[in-house]
TrEMBL record:
This is Organic hydroperoxide resistance protein OhrB. It comes from the Bacteria. Belongs to the OsmC/Ohr family. InterPro entries: KH_dom-like_a/b, OHR, OsmC/Ohr_fam, OsmC/Ohrsf. One of its GO terms (biological process) is response to oxidative stress. Gene3D superfamilies: 2.20.25.10, 3.30.300.20. Pfam families: OsmC (PF02566).
Amino acid sequence: MTDTVLFTGTATAVGGRNGHSQTSDGSVSVDLGMPKNGVLDAGKTTPEHLFATGYAACFGSAVEAVAHQKKIDVTGAAVTVAVSLVKGDSGYSLAAKISLKAPALTAQETKEVLEAAHQMCPYSKATRGNIPVELSVG
C-alpha cells in the first residue's frame, strides 16, 4: 500500500527563538521569545508551546479514536501536554509529559485509553525513542 499525504502544514521562522514564525496560509502567526529566568515577554510564545499545542490536539484525536474502537465515552476528556526544553551534558533536547483527564472513565479505563492513544498518535510515533515521554492519568 502506498502512503497518501492527507495534509501538509508549512511554516517559516525568521530570527530563531527570538523571531517570528508564520504558516504559509497565515492561520498561525506568532512572535517568539526565549524566557528569561522562567518569564516570557508578553505576547510571545516558544517552540515548546507550539509543539505542545499540536501534540495535545493530535493526542486528543487519538483518544477519541481509541474510545470509538472500545465503544466507551470520553466526553469532556482533556489532554494536557507539557514540552520542556532540557539542557544536559550532550546539549539541548526535549522531554514531554502527557496527562489525560476523562471524567466519564475510571482511573484504570483512563490509563488504558492513554496508553492505547500513545501507540496510535502520530506525534507519539514521531517522538518514540527520540525524547522521553511520561504518561499520567490527570
